[in-house]
Amino acid sequence: MGIDLLQALHVTPADKLLWLALGDWLEEQGDADRAELVRLSVNLRYQSPGKRREALERRLQELLQHGVAPCMAMLTNSIGMKLVLIPPGRFLMGSPFSEPYHSPDEGPVHEVTLTRPYYLGCFPVTQQEYHEVMQSRPSHFAPDGPLPYYRLNDVDTSRFPVDSVDYEDAVAFCKRLSALPEERAAGRRYRLPTEAEWEYACRAGTSSVFYFGDSLSSRQANFDGNYPYGGAERGVYLKRTCNVGQYPPNAFGLYDMYGNVWEWCSDWFDENFYRYSPKNDPVGPPGGDAHVLRGGSWIDASWHCRSADRSHREALHYVGFRVVMTTEAIARG
User: H-type helices in 180-273, by residue range?
Assistant: First the structure.
C-alpha cells in the first residue's frame, strides 16, 4: 500500500489527497511521527502567514530535531543518484530586514508559487558521480587534488561533494547526464535549479532562518563551527568538505542544503531582482555577469548558510552543485 501510494505520487505529485493518504497509511503502520511530518509538510505548502502557520512550523521542526525521517517519493537514476520529488507549492522568498545578517539583495520578502513539480538531488553531486559522467576529477579535497594543502591522502572522498566546478562545467554535467542512453530512454532531463526552486526546496515548508529553526550549529551542517547562529554553541570546524548525507535532512528529505559546498543555480545574479521578480515560476533576470550561488560552504560562518543567503562570487574550491531532473510529463505540469 505505501509503495503504491509513493508510485502514484510520481504520476500525480500535486494530489494533496494522495499525500494525506500516505500519512494515514504511515499512522496505520504505527509510525505516527512520520505520518504527522507528512501532514504538516502538505499543509505548509499553501498555509498563509500567521499564528497557525507558526505553530505548524514549530511542530515540524520539533519532529526533525528528534530525528523523524521524512517520507517522500524518490527515484534512483542510472548512475545511482537519488532524487526527491518536490511537489508544487507557495512560499515566502527572501529575508526580512530584521533577520540578523540580512543583506539588501535578500529583499523584499515576496510570495512565490512554483506551479510544477520537479525532482532534486538528495545530495550535492559527489566526486564519484561527477567522474562517472565527466571523466575528470577537479576536486581540491581528494587524494589526487591539485594543491598539496587541500589534498586528502588515504581518505576515500568518493562520497564527498565535488568541488571546484565552475558554472559552465556544472551545466555540461547536466547535459552529459541527460544524454546517457538510460536517461534518454526514461525521458529524464537534467539542469541546475532556479534560485526559487532551490530556496523552496531548502525551506521545505519553513519560513524561519533555517529549516531547523532560527539557530544553527556545526552539529547540523558542515561550516565553520566557530561562528554558530542564533545562540547555538560553538562546535567543530572540519576545514574541508565531508561525506554527503552526514547531517540531518530537511522535511523534503534533502541533505547538505547548508554548508559543505556552495551550490550553483541557473539564475543570473541581480541584487535588485526581488523587486520585480514574477510571482509564478521565476527564472531570474535575462542576463548578468555571474550566476547565483546558494547554501554556504565548509569555510563559511553560519550566517552564509541561511535559507535566504545569496552569493555570486566564491573561490571555486568552495563550490559544487546539485541537479534538477524533469520529464516531459512534469514539464507539462
Answer: 181-185, 195-203
Q: What is the greatest pairwise CA distance in the chain?
A: 55
Q: How many residues does the chain have?
A: 333
**CATH: 3.40.50.150, 3.90.1640.10, 3.90.180.10, 3.90.1580.10. Which one for 86-331?**
3.90.1580.10
pLDDT tens sequence across 69-89: 999 999 999 999 999 999 999
* CB 183, CB 177: distance < 8 Å: yes
Give dist(CA 174, CA 20) in Å, integer: 33
β-bridge mates for residue 118, sequence order:
86
For residue 24, what is the enclosing H or E element? helix 16-28
Does the pTM of the predicted model rise above 0.70?
yes
Residues 242-259 pLDDT 10s: 999 999 999 999 999 999
Specify whether the CB–CB gap between 52 and 238 falls below 8 A: no
Q: 159, exposed or middle or buried, with CB in 10 Å at 0-12, 13-18, 19+?
A: middle
Burial 129-139 (b: 16+ CB within 10 A, else e): bbbbbbeebbb
- Kindly write down the DSSP assignment for every residue of 117-183, as one continuous string: -EEEESSPPBHHHHHHHHS----SSSTT-SSTTT--TT---TTSBP-S--HHHHHHHHHHHHHSHHH
